Amino acid sequence: MNAAGMPVKAERMRFSEPLALAAGGSFGDYELVFETYGKLNAERSNAILICHALNASHHVAGVNEAGELGWWNNMVGAGKPIDTDRFFVLGVNNLGSCFGSTGPMSINPASGKAWGPDFPVLTVEDWVHAQARLADKLGISCFAAVMGGSLGGMQALAWSLLYPRRLAHCICIASTPKLSAQNIAFNEVARRAIISDPEFHGGRFYDSGVVPRRGLEVARMIGHITYLSDDVMAERFGRLLRGRESTEAYRYTFDIEFEIESYLRYQGEKFAGYFDANTYLIITRALDYFDPARAFGGDLSKAMAQASCRFFVASFTTDWRFSPERSREIVQALLACDLEVTYAEIEAAHGHDAFLLDNPQYHQLLRAYAERMAANLGLAE
């Protein structure tokens, strides 16, 4: 629900001018779906862009018309750390996603069929350029902040480099300046699970009326393991047997034996019911390609020298997917450029997923930073 108690409604914007892509060539025309929360002030100076991670969307907060709660509802809203009584918040579904913006499931006007594998490979930078175009159409020349967690944090960093004069603050949470070889490996195994599914049909499964469910399920199971800490998995599941006492005899089969197996299968089955396989390939490859230091001989400090905004960077102690060491790399690069940065390393047991969960210390830090940000920008109480 919005402030008036009505469901949040998604909006749609069409772009007829082709978007130049990092891979070469261009793409267009296309549509972006977005939601907004709060009120844009007369100066248009109180806007915050929220960038989503892999399987999220434009639906950041509140309840939409389908009755679904926004993926960051505990962070964004009236009286919350990102207070929509003060800020105008914009959530955008990225190009290539499967939640309404133009993507592989959309119809290719040249063929009259779904784009499928013919949809272009995209980068984080491509998404940022598309978001900037949307900001132009909304009359927002400079964001109070661009904010995101995980892949969303990468987009926030890219904003600070590509459009340094169009944001006052960059809020980068549980993110990284580039993927490690291990992270790329996890993504590749997940992609191979999808591509090797017989129902994938080279990405043209829409034409056959099928979905590569088994591949999507395995991909999600692999990903989900990396989002949780070992401590949380041990606490929640340990070696509990599914539906039986832990002291009972094993069944000696390859069906579900342990509770953790049941949980992972449930997560995989749920994911395969709503996410698009081609979108998964596109987004994980965009993750792999993100590396702003690459154009500067691997020197992140030289890359970050393009930025001019203030930064808030946060990591979580048990996040092994994007560990605190990776956030510290960002902080050190910013300090080397004499840029203003606030860094928080937050005690949290939940691993990478901690950026989405309730944590009093985490939320208080974001609330305090948002209040300071508002004061710096001269926004009224």
Describe, in plain words, how this protein is organized in 3D:
By secondary structure, the protein is of the alpha/beta class. It has 11 helices and 14 strands. It has helices at residues 124-137, 151-162, 181-195, 205-208, 213-227, 230-236, 259-272, 277-289, 300-304, 324-336, 360-377; strands at residues 11-15, 19-20, 26-27, 30-37, 47-51, 76-77, 82-83, 88-92, 107-108, 113-114, 145-149, 169-173, 310-316, 341-346. The strands form 4 sheets. An 8-stranded mixed sheet has the order 1-4-8-5-11-12-13-14, with helices on both faces. It has a two-stranded antiparallel sheet with strand order 2-3.
Give a short overview:
The chain has 381 residues and is α/β, with parallel strands linked by helices. The protein is 34% helix and 15% strand.
Q: Helix and strand layout, with pairings?
A:
Layout (H helix, E strand, L loop, with lengths): L10 E5 L3 E2 L5 E2 L2 E8 L9 E5 L24 E2 L4 E2 L4 E5 L14 E2 L4 E2 L9 H14 L7 E5 L1 H12 L6 E5 L7 H15 L9 H4 L4 H15 L2 H7 L22 H14 L4 H13 L10 H5 L5 E7 L7 H13 L4 E6 L13 H18 L4
Parallel strand pairs: 5-8, 5-11, 6-7, 11-12, 12-13, 13-14
Antiparallel strand pairs: 1-4, 2-3, 4-8, 9-10
Helix pairs in contact: 1-2, 3-5, 3-8, 5-7
